[in-house]
């Protein structure tokens, strides 16, 4: 392995080297995984991170967040999560500590406190000119590992002049942070349902505006849903289900992990409403879609149970039957007779938490790797601009791509691709260099025929 340019983890603001073979932007789990696979290929690289390693796990989430997947699953292959039972759910700080420890363990050459400001193509030769807060660097290859969830998105529905506190789930930390009074949580993916439940437990009046979601069983027949999605080959699905660009999975590891059930949320006192559509004069309008949305979520839940049963039967596996899991309770009144509008003042709603997802910001990446809408143009992370790669994108190669274990596998593919390209470039024919040493070998790139 060529470690000649492997720099020790660094916290300072020293200048960067003037050239580097591969520059990885971002030291979240994606950047750390990328470093491991580049090192395994013997490829010199540097990871630059504007904050700290795994900063988004450390400070970009609410206080009580635990991982959505159990510790045996939501980790990299090379290291277990210390201090967490394999079937338990790591806290966000344990996750951040884990990636820090992992980076140290693999001696990842990370420079923290360095932001990449701009990447442009070099003129007349391969590679990229990179401007950073620690000076310029030329990189032959650049991997954008800046996260699947970069820029919080709040739909332009309630104006800031409406006199109500509004924040994105990315800025939510705990119930005490919000002004006294009721809360409307918009969005019922993993973030929205967990935040709504926490606010309700804290004694708040809570409305939850529910959009399309899948809600797998937390566990079924003694196996966690992450296992079922694995054996049923759903993590590896290459594209979202037809008709859905991205369907949120409503799942939670909170409280030891329980199936997200909107009936239970309603029974706890949360008022469910449909998708938030518009606002005028203190009135928030919601779509007439709540029942259909809940029914679709139930259908996704039941279909996993059926597929799981079929899998058990087909493979003759001894897992305890769980017929009661197929029985759904009655739909609550807020679902059978849903509100179509909310008078925020009359309902006592003093704040809105928008758990409405994230967008991307690649304005720093000034190369031909983005589509007209500014989204990555790529195939499994290999962009349309030769030499530029993405890692950690939602659905980069499969459903699991933005999750801890999935990004590790995508990183291997990206590193393989870089290694293969380097092997081609290392080729020298006898005509080029009559006295040249043996020809470059693609097999030596460790990549041809490697599938995962
Ligand atoms: C609330 C929430 C809970 C989640 N729970 C789970 C879970 O339980 N299990 C799971 O597998 N996944 C989970 N995920 C999904 C995913 O694992 C995380 O989003 C994870 O943080 C993604 O890692 P990443 O390295 O791809 O991106 P990030 O963690 O976002 O890291 C990207 C890094 O790039 C840095 N960066 C950005 N721009 C620049 C720049 N220009 N220059 C230098 N540095 C830059 C950022 O500071 C950041 O540290 C969750 C996501 C959310 C939002």
TrEMBL record:
<dbReference type="Pfam" id="PF13738">
    <property type="entry name" value="Pyr_redox_3"/>
</dbReference>
<dbReference type="InterPro" id="IPR036188">
    <property type="entry name" value="FAD/NAD-bd_sf"/>
</dbReference>
<dbReference type="InterPro" id="IPR050982">
    <property type="entry name" value="Auxin_biosynth/cation_transpt"/>
</dbReference>
<keyword id="KW-0560">Oxidoreductase</keyword>
<protein>
    <submittedName>
        <fullName>NAD(P)/FAD-dependent oxidoreductase</fullName>
    </submittedName>
</protein>
């Amino acid at each position: 392995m060529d470690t000649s340019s492997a720099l020790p983890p660094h916290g300072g603001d020293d200048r960067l080297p003037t050239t580097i073979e591969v520059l990885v932007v971002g030291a979240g789990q994606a950047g750390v995984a990328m470093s491991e696979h580049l090192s395994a290929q013997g490829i010199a690289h540097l990871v630059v991170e504007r904050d700290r390693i795994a900063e988004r796990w450390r400070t970009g989430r609410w206080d009580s967040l635990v991982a959505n997947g159990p510790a045996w699953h939501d980790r990299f292959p090379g290291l277990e999560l210390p201090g967490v039972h394999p079937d338990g759910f790591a806290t966000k700080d344990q996750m951040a500590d884990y990636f820090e420890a992992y980076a140290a363990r693999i001696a990842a050459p990370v420079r923290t406190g360095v932001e990449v400001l701009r990447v442009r193509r070099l003129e007349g030769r391969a590679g990229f000119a990179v401007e950073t807060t620690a000076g310029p660097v030329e990189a032959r290859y650049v991997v954008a590992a800046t996260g699947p969830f970069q820029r919080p998105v709040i739909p332009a529905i309630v104006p800031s002049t409406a006199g109500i506190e509004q924040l994105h789930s990315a800025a939510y930390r705990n119930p005490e942070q919000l002004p006294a009074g009721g809360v409307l949580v918009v969005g019922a993916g993993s973030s929205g349902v967990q935040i709504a439940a926490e606010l309700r437990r804290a004694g708040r009046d809570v409305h939850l505006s529910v959009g399309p979601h899948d809600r797998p069983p937390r566990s079924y027949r003694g196996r966690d849903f992450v296992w079922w999605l694995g054996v049923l080959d759903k993590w590896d699905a290459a594209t979202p289900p037809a008709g859905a660009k991205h369907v949120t999975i409503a799942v939670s590891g909170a409280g030891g992990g329980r199936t997200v059930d909107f009936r239970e949320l309603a029974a706890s006192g949360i008022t469910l409403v449909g998708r938030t559509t518009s606002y005028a004069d203190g009135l928030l309008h919601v779509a007439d879609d709540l029942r259909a949305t809940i029914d679709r979520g139930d259908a996704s839940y039941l279909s996993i149970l059926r597929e799981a049963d079929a899998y058990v039967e087909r493979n003759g596996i001894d897992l305890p039957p769980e017929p009661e899991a197929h029985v759904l309770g009655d739909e609550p009144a807020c679902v059978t007779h849903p509100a179509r509008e909310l008078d925020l003042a009359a309902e006592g709603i003093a704040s809105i938490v928008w758990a409405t997802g994230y967008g991307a910001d690649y304005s720093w990446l000034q190369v031909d790797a983005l589509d007209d809408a500014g989204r990555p143009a790529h195939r499994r992370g290999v962009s349309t601009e030769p030499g530029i790669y993405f890692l950690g994108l939602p659905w980069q190669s499969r459903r699991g791509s933005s999750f801890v274990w999935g990004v590790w596998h995508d990183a291997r593919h990206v590193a393989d691709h870089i290694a293969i390209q380097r092997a081609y470039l290392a080729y020298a024919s006898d005509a080029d260099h009559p006295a040249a040493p043996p020809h470059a070998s693609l097999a030596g790139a460790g990549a041809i025929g490697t599938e995962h």
